[in-house]
Amino acid sequence: MCRIRMSKVWSGFVVCPLGAAMMLAGCGNTEQAANSVAEASARQSGEAAAAPGNEAGEGQPDLSQTEEVSIESGMEIGAIPLPFDVEDVTGPNQGKHLCYRCLYGERPVVGIFVRDLGQKTKSLIQKIDQEVASHQDEKLAAFVVVLTDDPASAKPELEQVAQETKIKHVPLTVFEGAVGPAGYNVANEAAVNVMIWEGEVKANRAYQKGQLNDAGIQEVIADTRLIVQGS
């Protein structure tokens, strides 16, 4: 006795071996029954191939439509930033090793941790410099920290950035160690990580290399203004 399996395409069609076909045909013509099964199978295969959703490649994810995935980097909201030392390259304390986290205390602070000084990063620094200038009464402060295993090679580039951007209120500093200061959790793939705090972390945004754009810069500015307004 044959097993009967219902086709997904022809829901009412029964596919059986040759013996069952002969039985269904009244066992009168084996060749005719075999041909009937073969023709039906061919029709079934053809319709299955032509059925909607079975085209080659259909149902596969369109990678061109994949959204960018945000990276996890930096301190969590509510965390308390720990003290750490940097070397000031362009600020009022140029050439000194100091802790800006300690110096700024409980003031609203924008900490910009970078491994890439591309054009968008420079634009971000310029915008934050303007925000600091506009919010002196609120005591807004900011500083840039370049994370590098070779601070000496980073200094000339920072001096050039300061000249290009004409910044006056945001010191550019270097931290020895590409992994970043302990407790700040800057991910290896983060080219720019902006953390804003006022005693505790209020906002945190991170970008991979080439990911920071004008919209991202505006998000950081909006975060900064919200914190200043709430201080």
Automatic annotation (TrEMBL):
Biased composition (Low complexity): 38-59
Domain of life: Bacteria
Signal peptide: 1-33
Protein's UniProt keywords contain Signal: yes
The keyword Signal is annotated on this UniProt entry: yes
Region (Disordered): 38-69
UniProt keywords, alphabetically: Signal
Protein name: Thioredoxin domain-containing protein
